[in-house]
Specification:
The chain has 176 residues and is mostly helical. 52% of the residues lie in helices and 4% in strands. It is built from seven helices and three strands; from the N terminus they run αββααβαααα. A hairpin with a 2-residue loop joins β1 and β2 (32-33). The protein is globular, with a radius of gyration of 18 Å. Residues 169-176 have low confidence and may be disordered.
């Protein structure tokens, strides 16, 4: 009944339900499953007062969907710092024109391997380091190639900072 209720709620609110979806493992805090019944839930609207939605989404992708994620604000802060490095890199290279979205073969392999998003995040970090090195050596074409790979991966992950859904309202998605 839980799944049917999810579908009914989404469609009653006027939204089409996802064609494909799956359960993820628990988000835990202090080693316990996070749940309303235990009283250790975090309210998303409260988290979004301090963090942008895109940053929270990036953080939640750091654990494989079948693995538990031990939530902590320290880990979220570290994740935010890492995401801002990616945004800064993309901003710097976007000054020379729009950054295309490219889907790299390494990205495809990771995603085809049971949606290995943490592996993809490691690839993005690798591309970021290489892209920053290229920028430091004034190799803009190489930097843009890495930027395209990063932007392509971020787009698929729903974390593209140039996506209009993440505008100046703190990263909260605008409802149309």
């Amino acid at each position: 009944p839980h799944h049917e209720n999810e579908i009914a709620q989404s469609e009653a609110a006027g939204y089409k339900f996802a064609r494909l979806w799956m359960h993820n493992a628990w988000v835990t805090t202090a080693g316990e499953k996070m749940s309303k019944s235990l009283g250790n839930s975090l309210i998303v609207s409260e988290i979004l007062k301090k963090y942008r939605g895109i940053e929270v989404r990036w953080y939640l992708g750091s654990a494989h969907y079948r693995s538990m994620l031990e939530f902590s604000f320290g880990a979220l802060d570290e994740s935010v710092t890492n995401f801002k490095r990616i945004e800064n890199f993309l901003e710097r290279i976007s000054k020379s024109g729009e950054i295309e979205k490219a889907i790299d073969s390494e990205f495809k392999v990771a995603m085809d391997s049971d949606l290995a998003v943490p592996e993809v995040l490691a690839l993005i970090s690798k591309w970021l380091r290489a892209g920053n090195t290229a920028l430091a050596e004034d190799q803009m074409d190489i930097a843009r190639d890495y930027g395209s790979k990063i932007r392509g991966a971020l787009d698929i992950l729903g974390c593209d900072p140039f996506d209009p859904a993440f505008n100046n309202n703190g990263g909260k998605v605008e409802q149309s």
